[in-house]
Design brief:
Chains A, B, C: This is Nuclear transport factor 2 family protein. Chains A, B, C: InterPro entries: NTF2-like_dom_sf, SnoaL-like. The structure is a homotrimer of 146-residue chains. By secondary structure, chain A is of the alpha+beta class. In chain A, 29% of the residues lie in helices and 45% in strands. Chain A has helices at 12-30, 34-38, 59-76, and strands at residues 41-49, 56-57, 78-92, 96-109, 115-129, 132-142. A 6-stranded mixed beta sheet of chain A has the order 2-1-6-5-4-3, covered by helices on one side. Chains A and B meet through helix 1, strand 3 and strand 4 of A and helix 1, strand 3, strand 4 and strand 5 of B.
C-alpha cells in the first residue's frame, strides 16, 4: 500500500471516538474493573496474543483470563497502565472499524520504579454493538516474541 | 459505570482541543517557560499530587513550585518530557470539562539514557477562562505511591 | 508566546489528519517498508537531526539513510517502535501545517526487554502534495544531546 493509496482519513468524529474508546477501555482494566472492561468486547469477541498458546474466545473466557491477571497484579502490589497510541484507522464503515495501534504495558510496583514490560502491536476490529463500540477481534503481537 | 452508561462522546472538536491544550501546556513546562505554563491554570487553580504533603493552591503557589523544580532540572542538565495520553473526556459543557488521562515523566540527562521517572494518573477540571482553556483543578496520583 | 496568544485551535479534522498521518508514517518505518515511508516526505524533503552531522536532503538521501538503519535493526533482531505524541499544531493553512511533537524510539530485542532508546523533540513542516500530506522539513532534537 503506497501512501497515495492510504485510506481516506476517517471523519474526525470517528477518529476521536476510537481514541476515547481506547482510553476508557484501558482505564477500566487498569482500575481492576474487569467485568466492565470485558463488556467492551462483543459477546463473541476474540482476544488473541502471540504470548498465549490459544486465543480467548467469547466474553466469558476473556473475563476469566483478565480477572486472573488482575488479581495477580493486585496481590503483587503492581499498578499496570496500558498505553495505546499511534492509532491508525485502516478502514471504517458506520458499523465497523479496523484499527492498528501500538500498545505499551507500563508497570509500577508500590514503592518502585516504572518499567515498560511489553511493547506490542495491537490490531482491532471494532463494531457498533448495543449502542456503543465494542472489540470483536483483538490481535496483540508482542515485539519480543516476533 | 457500565460501558453503556459511558458519557456520550464529546464533540470531536472538543476532544482535539483538549489534546492540543495538553500538548501546548506541557511543551511550555518542558521548555522551562514556567510563567506561561502557570498561566494555563486559573488564578485560583489547584495542583494536588499524592507525592506532595499539601496541594499548591493559586497560580502564585503553582508558579513557585514549578520554578523551583525547573531550576533544579536545568542545573542538573536533565531534560524532562511530560507525556499525557489515554485521554478520556468524562464530562463536558461549553464552559467546563472533566478529563482523566495518564501522564508519564520521562527524563534524559545530558549524555545519558532516557528513563521513565514517574507513571501517574491525572484528573483535571478544565474551564474556559479568558478566552482559552485553563486547569482549575489537577490531581496527580503517582503509581508508586498508591 | 503567552497562552492567550496561542494559535486558535485547528479544525478537529486537521488535527486528527495529522495524528493519523503520523501513525501511518511510523508504522511504515517500523514495518521496514522504507520506500513507502520515504514517500511520506516531499521529493525535496529535509530530515535533520542533532544526532547527525548533516541533514539528509531529498527523498533519495532520506531513503538511503533509512534503508541502512532498517537493515541493521533487522540483522540485529530488534523491533523498533516510533511513538509520536503530545502533538501541537502550531500553524495551519489548507496547504501547510507546522507541528511540534515529542517522539520516543522504543526498541525490543527478540527475547529481550523493551527500552526507550531516545527521547526527542520533533518539529515538522507538513505540506499537501500529490493529494496527501508529506513532510517537507523534519527537525529531530535528541534530549541527550541538547
Amino acid at each position: 500500500m503506497s501512501v497515495t493509496e492510504l485510506p481516506q482519513s476517517p471523519t474526525a468524529g470517528l477518529y476521536q471516538e476510537i481514541q476515547q474508546f481506547y482510553a476508557q477501555q484501558m482505564h477500566l482494566l487498569d482500575d481492576g474493573r474487569v467485568g466492565e472492561w470485558a463488556d467492551t468486547f462483543t459477546e463473541d469477541g476474540v482476544f488473541a496474543a502471540n504470548a498465549q498458546p490459544v486465543p480467548a474466545v467469547g466474553r466469558a473466557a476473556i473475563t476469566e483470563a483478565a480477572a486472573k491477571a488482575t488479581e495477580a497484579y493486585a496481590a503483587a502490589g503492581v499498578q499496570r497502565r496500558h498505553w495505546l497510541g499511534m492509532v491508525s484507522v485502516e478502514s471504517a464503515t458506520p458499523e465497523a472499524v479496523t484499527a492498528r495501534c501500538y500498545a505499551l504495558v507500563i508497570e509500577t510496583p508500590r514503592g518502585g520504579r516504572p518499567e515498560i514490560k511489553a511493547s506490542t502491536l495491537c490490531e482491532d476490529r471494532i463494531v457498533r454493538s448495543g449502542g456503543t463500540w465494542r472489540i470483536q477481534d483483538r490481535q496483540i503481537t508482542r515485539d519480543d516474541l516476533i
